[in-house]
Design brief:
By secondary structure, this protein is α/β, with parallel strands linked by helices. The chain is built from 10 helices and 5 strands, in the order H-H-E-H-E-H-E-H-H-H-H-H-H-E-E. Helices cover 44% and strands 15% of the residues. A hairpin with a 4-residue loop joins strand 4 (174-181) and strand 5. Belongs to the beta-class carbonic anhydrase family.
Length: 211
């Protein structure tokens, strides 16, 4: 299996070089993506593939159920580097329907360490219990929770001083929430764009940014 991966890599590098002889030389000099993408680790959601982007176009961070915890140094470091140093213009949170992490959060079974990771999704469920439980089928409930989870992570990102400092400095930074449909390959815009502090869910999340 691993031998095949190396063979595929050689074939891929050869095809890219044939099309653009200087591609890897130029790519090695640095990156300047306009988008940072927070997505799920699910192997069925290959970020660059589903939006037809090439190497260097999207700065990607993935974890189970596309979470952005305020205490997760990994996600925070990715966001800071993308916003402060790469100066991206768009932050995308992309979940997907049929997400195992979201489905697990809806039950009471133990799954190990991941239970701690998806605890926040249970909170999203609790805060929207009437809406979720009014759905007809389990699939409809899970699909709605996928969307609500994405929306919460969008809010979590907008509530960071990383993003708000960028806004205070006049940077054009927008946060978007999308969901990917495994059975069609299509993205759904959840219409939760946050473009400035005026779009925060509540002003309690607003920082007084010192100059």
């Amino acid at each position: 299996m691993t031998e095949k991966l190396f063979a595929n890599n050689k074939e891929w590098a050869k095809s890219i070089t044939k099309e653009n002889p200087d591609f890897f030389i130029n790519s090695s000099k640095g990156q300047s993506p306009k988008i940072v993408w927070f997505g799920c680790s699910d192997s069925r959601v290959p970020v660059e593939t589903i939006v037809k982007s090439g190497p260097g176009e999207i700065f990607v961070h993935r974890n189970i159920a596309n979470q952005f915890h305020h205490s997760d140094l990994n996600s925070l470091s990715v966001l800071e580097y993308a916003v402060k140093f790469l100066e991206v213009e768009h932050v995308v949170v992309c979940g997907h329907y049929g997400c195992g992490g979201v489905i697990c959060s809806m039950g009471n079974s133990q799954h190990g360490l991941v239970d701690n990771w998806i605890r926040g999704i249970k909170d999203v469920y609790r805060n929207n219990k009437n809406s979720v439980e009014s759905c007809g089928s389990d699939k409809e409930k899970a699909d709605l929770l996928v969307e609500l989870n994405v929306k919460q992570q969008v809010q979590n990102i907008s509530a960071t001083d990383i993003v708000q400092t960028a806004w205070a400095k006049g940077k054009n930074l927008k946060i978007h929430g999308w969901a990917y449909q495994l059975d069609t390959g299509l993205l759904k815009d959840l219409k939760v764009d946050i473009c400035g502090e005026q779009d925060l869910k509540d002003q309690i999340y607003k920082y007084k940014i010192s100059n």
